[in-house]
Amino acid sequence: MRTLHTIISTLLGVLLAAGVFAEKPESTMFYLNSKNDSYKVNFTLASHLMVLTFAINGSDSLNLIFDTGAGRTIITEISNPYIVSLNQARKVKLRGLGTDESVDGLISKNNKLSMGKIEGKAQELLVVPNKVIDLTARVGHPINGVIGRSIFEQFVVEINYTNQTLHFYNPDKYKRKIHKDADVIPIELIDGKPYITAMVTINGVDIPVKLLFDTGMSFALWLDPSTNPNIKPGIVHRQEVLGQGLNGNLSGEISRVEKFRIGKFEFNNVITAFPDSNAIRDAITDNGRNGSVGAEIFRRFNVVIDYHNQQIILRKNSNFDDPFRYDMSGIEVGQIVEGLPFYKVLSVGSNTPASECGLMVNDEIKSINGTSVSTMKISEISNILKSKEGKTIKMKVIRNGNEVKVKFKLRELI
Asked: Residues 117-156: pLDDT tens digits?
């Protein structure tokens, strides 16, 4: 199931729209409304993405992805517009990745964002029309948007992926601890976004790369071949729909790089996306960027993000040695109804086990290997479909009101 890589272009498309068609965000401020110097919150991990619960101007809770790659807070869906009051809103034209066409959106200024003891004043929001970017269906968890830049500028943030907790510290009170199995990685802040220097090995060639450090991208890596002639997919690769932009699907290739090195840490056979360069041309600016590194890498560490000292600290956690697995079925699965365990086939890759057994787009999945999917999260379905080469998968699906049974064996696609 290709749920993970669809997030790459979904978020990238929205962020590009904000950067191209709207002026830079106004100065905003988050602060800790407490006498303590730190504040701890739990997050939900969905498709490797951290999801936090915020209120806007005292509204009911909204689920926002915690995203270092976001230039501003972006709202992609409000299920009930009457429960959220937006201040000083005006219409803007938004253009995402995929085409040059635009859609209508809103910029709203002077809002208050709150999450427990953490509050943000004078917040500027970019609002995308409902369902133009459907993060909920692909992540498998209710998602209302992303929050980024401004909150990272105000705090030192510790991320514990194994315990699913975040610690926010006042920078002048934070006491840095460097463990022997940790490493300090310098970051360069450009327009409030963090960039790191790393190394990839492709076809035996070591290539230094400048990457956006992007916690809002669930994939491990994406690299733009137009930025370096040595950056290209390996011999084994697949043409795929990589994600959804504001104006449609984005294509590219999926392959593996032989090695990826960040600081003193090294990974082998890392699954990597190579988006179509024309589709992402506006996202790759003249700052020397080659691509992005995402949460499939970061979840293998406990992470400290320290904008004030322009560094991140990485320390291995129990996920470090997990293999990099990719879908072995050829289907992408999404939710039919937000927040409920009803799933359908969103896409079927060509020359895959799914296409060969006759699975079709919009097939409603009822059971997998005898177990009803009503008891499963989308991440559990994903794990089944990339679990082991040669494993037999039996599905019952509903197609045009009729039950259809299919059977196929998982196999490595890249």
From this structure: 999 988 988 888 766 677 777 777 888 999 988 888 899 9
Q: Give the domain extent around 99.
A: 10-171
> Which 8-state DSSP code applies to residue 164?
T
CATH of the domain at 363: 2.30.42.10
Determine the Cα–Cα distance for residues 2 and 333; give it in Å rounded to an integer.
Answer: 7
Could you give the CA distance from residue 128 to residue 105 in angstroms, rounded to a whole number? 5
Name the residue type at position 141. H
Q: Give me the residues paired with residue 244 across strands.
A: 249
- Residue 331 CA, chain-centre distance (Å), reads 19
CATH number reported for the structural domain that contains residue 280 in this entry: 2.40.70.10
Q: List CB contacts of 322: < 8 A, sequence separation 6 or more.
A: 300
Calculate the alpha carbon distances from 36 to 103, 173, 174 in Å.
44, 10, 12
pLDDT in tens, 69-125: 887 888 888 876 666 888 888 888 776 555 556 777 888 999 999 999 999 988 988
pTM attached to this predicted model? 0.85
Domain end, chosen from 283, 316, 349, is at: 316
Instruction: Report the C-alpha gap between 361 and 336 in whole angstroms.
Output: 13
- Reduce the secondary structure of 52-71 to three states and give it as a string: EEEEECCCCCEEEEECCCCC
Which three-class secondary structure state does DSSP give residue 297?
Answer: helix
| DSSP SS3 for 317 | coil
**Cβ–Cβ contacts within 10 Å for residue 367, how many?**
16
